[in-house]
Amino acid sequence: MKHNRKIIYLAGFLISVPIALTSYINSSLLEIYVDKYFLGIIYMLASLITIIGMAKMPKILTRLGNRKSTLLFCLIFLASLILMGLGGKGFIVIPAFIFYFVSVNLIFATLDIFIEDFSKNSPVGGIRGVYLTIINFAWVIAQMMSGSVIAKSSLPGIYLLSALFVSLVCIIFSLFLRDFKDPQYEKVPILRTIIFFWRNRNIAKIYLITLILRFFYAWMIIYTPIYMHEYIGFDWSQIGIIFSIMLLPFIILELPLGILSDRIGEKKMLIVGFCIISVSTAMIPLFSAPTLLLWALILFATRVGAATIEIMSESYFFKSVAEEEADVLSFFRNTNPLSYIIAPLLAIPVLLIVPSFEYLFFVLGAVMLCGLLISLRLRDVR
């Protein structure tokens, strides 16, 4: 079991590098073909398709098994990266991005099932902490690479480099984990899943907390690179350095906080995390000078809050469900695509109303306070 867990840790690292390399530049690539004020529409379409895909997950897993399903989604991801890098036309790049977005979300849903299975009879918070730390380490390394790669080969070079990493993941799932025994995946109608969340109020609250955090990520991923590059004046190599520093809290904090959650519960740390993320996000518009260290510090502070919320919400949820509840896991993972629907729906009218782009971050800081209110009403699970 420990050996298989290491394989998933490696796969999680390798699949996270291409996602991290491309996530913060996807909006800049799409902006070549779509006005930045309407980028959100593409994200919304990709998110709707992802939610449909998540609803079909139990059926896919039952037919193919988790290992083959992961391999299939990785192959789709690989093809989409190549098309985004070499397509050169909107009618190629935009559909490729949609396949990219859908496959990434499905891959992480299948990796969750592996981790759940390999975590039996082990402390959940600690194992989730290790897994998330490894994934976030990949994000830091990727941001350190991205600026120089863009400078040397432009945006397409990033996507082709990313495709190489995905190729390695495809090899892993082709050669390893053949002995993985799939659980009996429950096929539960979506209405029953919604009723399950409604009746289990604390799980419903942690779902909302995770949705708010994913909303934060979606908003930041779509709009922060544009704001820093076009409005503040940073070049891509500087942005790469800033983002590398920004992501360090995920490496530093998530493992020790995951272990801590097994001892003291998650509620207190969720409250602290939302206080930090709300204040630091609302401070972003107060800085307009292109000072690298200053921006690195303020974005670092936002991710201290985000890292705390992330590990606490993951730990809480996976203490409360089992791996065979694929419908519940899929519904929980819908927070990511759902956030990419809600964020643009709010951002587009805000952009049309507010006097300037930086007001987006005041709004985002206010939204984070909703997570604080929900955390105050949460009951710890041990």
TrEMBL record:
Gene3D superfamilies assigned to the protein according to its UniProt record, in alphabetical order: MFS general substrate transporter like domains
UniProt keyword terms in alphabetical order: Cell membrane, Membrane, Transmembrane, Transmembrane helix, Transport
A family per Pfam: MFS_1
One GO cellular component term: plasma membrane
GO molecular function: transmembrane transporter activity
SUPFAM superfamilies reported for this sequence: MFS general substrate transporter
Major facilitator superfamily (MFS) profile domain mapped to chain residues: 203-382
PROSITE patterns (alphabetical): MFS
Main location: membrane
Entry keyword Nucleotide-binding: no
Domain of life: Bacteria
Subcellular localization, as worded in the UniProt entry: Cell membrane
Membrane topology: Multi-pass membrane protein
Transmembrane feature ranges: 7-25, 37-57, 69-86, 92-115, 127-151, 157-177, 206-226, 238-257, 269-287, 338-354
InterPro entries found in the cross-reference section: MFS, MFS_dom, MFS_trans_sf, MFS_Transporters
Keyword Transmembrane: yes
Protein name: Major facilitator superfamily (MFS) profile domain-containing protein
Species annotation: Candidatus Nomurabacteria bacterium RIFCSPLOWO2_02_FULL_40_67
